[in-house]
Amino acid sequence: MQAPDCAYAWVAKCSNNQLRKFVADVSSHRNSLFTKLNIGNVAWSEISRSVFAGYLPNTEKNERTVNLFAELWGKLAGEFLNDAHIDEYNSIKHGFRVRSGGFSLAIGLEHEYGVTPPQNEMKCLGHSKHGTTIIKLEKIGPNRDERSYRSKRHSLNWSVEKTALLLQLASMSINNVTSAMKISNGIEADTCKFTRPLEDDDFATPWSYSTGVTSSNMDDFFKFDKSMNTSKEQLQKQVDSYVQSKVNK
User: Is 157 part of a structural domain of the chain?
Assistant: First the structure.
């Protein structure tokens, strides 16, 4: 989109925050992005049309392929921008107390207050053997400049089948974008390979594998009190006090 003649340098210089903003702008059709490609509207549909311009042009299969990949990239963008996935990615990348394994969630009607119903009366809402539990930091109050945080456990379920199928579709996408960039840089189109699933329905198959409930953040509840607010000045005093105590020693 922005550097088709030097993509590796764009990737090397692009931060995660910049990439997320780019993806969000494309998904929201803001059309405010700089692009070197001749695209009127920077959206997944137009990007897909540009990528597959050299794949069976002026055919019904080309049109279907353009639409199916555009829809796929839109769905993947939604997963990429999901706050829970971003927190999980950061925790895994930095090793922030990540526990492997999924979770189960079931509900049932108590016959007696505080007594768990029989197992055969519980209704399972979601389950997976695979997933993660991470520690997430949240501001304790609504103040935008709030500096006090609490930690909270957040669990996510993974579908192995969905992940495996999406990896295949992502691999095809990378191959197709690479072929499109080769063509834009002067390589003959008939020497560049484009790939896609055999059946149109295969694009939607990954989402047919569901774990039910995908995330859970149940934790202890506490009532927010304004006395819990911490100002910058208070934090600075604590730091100064700590530093002074070390100097005195």
Answer: yes
Q: At 215, phi and psi to the nearest 5?
A: -150, 155
Expressed as residue numbers, the domain containing 189 is 61-248
What does the alpha-carbon distance between residue 149 and residue 152 come to, in Å, rounded to a whole number? 10
Q: Is residue 50 part of a domain?
A: no
> Which residues neighbour 100 within 8 Å (Cβ) at sequence distance 6 or greater?
130, 131, 132
Instruction: Take residue 125 and report the two structure tokens written for it.
Output: 């809402």
* Structural domains of the chain, count: 1
- State the pLDDT confidence band at 87, using cuts at 50, 70 and 90: very high
d(CA 128, CA 45): 34
Contact 238, 193 (CB under 8 A): no
pLDDT at 146 over 80: no
Indicate the angle between helix axes 44-51 and 60-80, nearest 10 degrees. Answer: 130
152 in Cβ contact with 217 (< 8 Å): yes
